[in-house]
Amino acid sequence: MADVSVTSGSSPAKQPNMTVNPQVTDGVTQTNVSVLAVAPAQSMGLVYQTMAQSISLSMQNGVAAQGGMQQINAAIVGTAVQNIMALGKK
């Protein structure tokens, strides 16, 4: 890699040029490449986790609704049996 010169201030005579060590730039570049290489897999993992959470919540809602319908069914059957028994007493 080529040396990267960094200058600060308005006058180059007052501030000497500072060069960045190529090993430092290589380290930063390798880190950036590593992060970019891992990002797609992490984002797909996040998508799968979100989908699993959504599906589990919908299943939980379905189970709760079914339980509520069973309670309503028990009340309706109890009322129907009570009405049938009342007809037999007349």
Keywords:
90 residues; mainly alpha; two-stranded antiparallel sheet; rod-shaped
Task: Provide structural commentary.
- With 90 residues, this protein is mainly α.
- The chain has a domain at 33-89.
- Helix content is 76%, strand content 7%.
- The protein contains one helix and two strands, in the order E-E-H.
- The protein has a two-stranded antiparallel sheet with strand order 1-2.
Low-confidence stretches: none
Mean pLDDT figure: 84
Strand adjacency order, main sheet: 1-2
Percent range of helical residues: over 70%
Question: β content, as a range?
Answer: 5-15%
Structural class assignment: mainly alpha
Q: How would you spell out the order of helices and strands? A: EEH
What's the topology here?
Blueprint: E1 4-6, E2 18-20, H1 22-89
Antiparallel strand pairs: 1-2
Brief account:
The protein is mostly helical and 90 residues long.
